[in-house]
Specification:
This protein is α+β, with helices and mostly antiparallel strands and 144 residues long. 32% of the residues lie in helices and 28% in strands. The protein has helices at residues 2-18, 48-53, 105-113, 115-128, and strands at residues 23-29, 33-38, 43-47, 63-65, 68-70, 79-85, 89-94, 102-104. The chain has a three-stranded antiparallel β-sheet with strand order 1-2-3. Strands 6-7-8 form a three-stranded antiparallel β-sheet. The protein starts with a helix and ends in a 16-residue tail after the last helix.
Amino acid sequence: MGLRRTLESAIRSIQTVADCPRLTKFSLHPPKSVEVEFDNGDSYNLSAEYLRIHSPAIDSKIRSIRGEKVISGRRHVGIMSAEPVGNYGVRILFDDLHKTGIFAWDYFYYLGRNKFSHMRNYITTLKKHGLSRDPQRKKSTSRV
């Protein structure tokens, strides 16, 4: 059953990319969000947190818990800048200094169309593992 679900998901992803409308607007609203619009009329406001946890880069800050990839503590992450990469995407620099992910225009469309289900699944996964969207507080060391 798991393999079938994975294959169906992969097919939907391929269809989404093949059917992806053309990007007509990209607006950076640092530090909070990115706004994208497409030629089919769809527009999405994607938060910095959402983009950071769905960065297409392999990142050392991802924790693997029982085989599940989890990024926690990114509720207040901000976007510092974005730079174009060719004519197909953009590299976003986040204030936690993550900058290796290149977001292709079709990936923004995929993220926008699936924003609510992705966030619901993300929050469920965090709760399942006792993690939070909020950054961990540093333990204070008081000296007398």
